[in-house]
Amino acid sequence: MIIGSLQAEPDPTPTGAFPDPSNLTLDNYADINSRIDLLQGLVNSGIFTGGVIGCTVVFGVLAGYALAVLQWRGRGLTFALALLVQVVPFQLLMIPLYVLIARDYGLADTHLGMILPFAINSTAVIVFRQYFLQLPRDLFDAARVDGAGELRLLRSVALPLVRPVLVTVVLITFIGPWNEFLWPFLITKDASKQPLAVSLANYISNVAATAANPFGAVLAGAVVLAAPAVGLFIVFQRYFTSSNIGSGVKG
Asked: Domain span at residue 195?
């Protein structure tokens, strides 16, 4: 994809997978940036994705802790409902959510309108619950004896012990909203607020054919879109690997 984005003339043959110094150029990046603002698209994607990740982590930690550690009536039923949500495709909810957010809440053409449908992630709730269940109960009992409240228990005892899963949830959650284009496209028609994935989809469907090298320009946009996701994974890879290894260790 990177090599294709740098080619002055598209080379679909197997040799095109290798860089040819005589066929390399940055014109594809300049071309697509002149048609869609790559920097503004990245900023919008960052706002959208950051808001979703923040809400997912906060609500996921609170709900997962409540389902795993606290004792209250209806806990099993609530967890069953969280599991049931997993079988409902988001596409079935899209039209009702659009009516609710755009018409009833008046949040069309806003970042908040894009974030709200993804603010609570049932998968994150389930993942946090399972990790909190693995923590020894004695740790919480000892902290309660010392006078710690539930929020102090969550902040000082539980969260430091599940740090790898925090990173895992962030990475897994990041991919969805970062690449999401259908919902943001529905909720906002303002190009200055659309994430980069939406701008690229509009570019491919509307103006790519008019570019000097449509193939290279599309790949250039894809490189810009993929780079933050790859960079984030590389930075947090050791935490992600730690969570995978820890999940297979008993005791």
From this structure: 2-9+22-247
